[in-house]
Design goal:
Keywords: Glycosidase, Hydrolase, Lipid metabolism, Signal, Sphingolipid metabolism. By secondary structure, the protein is α/β, with parallel strands linked by helices. Helices cover about 25% and strands about 25% of the residues. The structure holds 2-acetamido-2-deoxy-beta-D-glucopyranose (NAG) (3 copies).
Amino acid sequence: MHLRCVAIVAIVLWVGLSESGTPCNSRRFNHDSVVCVCDENFCDTLDPIEPTARGLLNVYESDRAGKRLEKREVQFGNDLPGPIFWNVNLERTERFQEIIGFGGSWSDAAAIGLDRLSPDLRTKVLRSYYSTEGIEYSTARVVISGCDFSNRPYTYDDVTNDWELNNWSLVEEDVNMKIPQMHEAVRHAGKPIKFMGSSWSPPAWMKNNGELNHGGQLIGNAGSYEWKQYARYLLKFFQAYRAAGIDFWGMTVQNEPMTGWDPWFPWNTCGFNAEMERDFAKLDLGPIMEEGGFAPGNFSIMVLDHNRPLALDWAITVFSDAEASRYVAGLAVHWYFYGTAGPYQVYDNIHTRFPDKFILGTEACNRNEIDGDHIGLGLWYLAEDYAHDILLNLLHWVGGWTDWNLVLDDEGGPNWVGNTHSAPIIVNPGAGEFYKNTQFYAMAHFSKFLPPGSIRIGASPGVEEEGTVELGAFERPDGGTVIIVINSSDMEQYFNLNDADLGVVKVKVDPHAFSTWVYYR
Ligand SMILES: *[C@@H]1O[C@H](CO)[C@@H](O)[C@H](O)[C@H]1NC(C)=O
Ligand SMILES: *[C@@H]1O[C@H](CO)[C@@H](O)[C@H](O)[C@H]1NC(C)=O
Ligand SMILES: CC(=O)N[C@H]1CO[C@H](CO)[C@@H](O)[C@@H]1O
């Protein structure tokens, strides 16, 4: 082809694609759906969400058949044949929780995976997650020292009995990986990211079993010198990151504290019960963080950071105590065993009792359990599990949802105890590629469209019940209305959305699809 023709074709292509980002470069890995492949030359992108003309509804859909946030325009007053329509009415006077944010986590495994990529590919991952050409994450959980997703067990002070913390220091994973990567993410986000810290284990010598794993609790008790020194150990982390230009929004007291009561527990942990977290927050951690420059109001301390069955008991124990409550802003919850974790309505109950406290999902991940291939590239049910749990949390006062490892390698690690999993992005530095797995798009259907400050509003039907729709409605800070629908059935679903001003718009949602609708009035 003549060079000038090449240039013209390229311009035409570029103009055409720029209208709704660049599409997924899909690849199938022997599963029911696809991944989107990114390399140095190409990575799928999205446009920022901008107000549409009145009367227009933008539908973004991803499905098992391979659509990935594919955008189409629908007009209010349209005609659409379909067998049965769900009638959706919005109740704008019913206003529920404010969105805190959506994000992923800087475990060491994520930091190492990102570090192994070329600078260009690393930038593409961080832009895919945090920029407006990506899925606009607004939060990030950061592991305080190591956890199972590290390639070695360690803490920031492994010099035995160094109670004065003279030997405390950040490690290579922080200085060379997490801190520069977090700075880069903030640059691409173009706005602050809510960073939250969580520790898995104190130094082994601070624990009564002398090990990072196999359960064990802090030596001493609330108010003791030992517990205060552990609080100072944690404070040093936030001060060191602040000195490096990264300010944290919050922390949890302890990752999955109940695992610290299991003497066979394989990886880094420390046992607290609800009373211990209450008293640690009240007597040690809260005051020491405040004195150290992380005061309530500017810095959110969260308790629990573990599964839903524990939530009500912990909320009552901690939030009923006025002094502890002064230091503790919210309840952090994990999704594990969600199928058997009991009804989500427990969060409604907690909100009714303690309306000033927020609830935030701080960890979730999954893996392919069918064979040894844990990362399950292109498995649709991994995404459906995410979307279902996110939506049901949002329908019950939870303010956001945090995915676990931002990236993992093609074995689902590294993980020093072999607890490998899947992640929304799997890196393959050897091939110069990374793969956006199905969970990435489940996150996107929420994170891209619900910036912090969005509010959930009433919608009917809007609550999950056998045989009814899974649907949530929200208002964005820019005035946009967002409707998110999940269809996990093999049948198309049809909707009549009634807007008080604009009338009715009819929308079809494909089988096994996530569908996010945005419009402005
Ligand atoms: C710990 O810190 C002390 C005081 O700064 C120093 O003398 C000692 O060498 C350090 N120990 C180790 C193992 O780094
Ligand atoms: C929060 O931080 C700002 C700026 O650093 C400061 O002016 C304000 O007093 C702090 N608020 C609290 C409650 O500490
Ligand atoms: C929107 C909608 O109708 N979603 C349905 C999709 O399929 C599942 C069953 O797998 C239903 O429970 C949802 O309500």
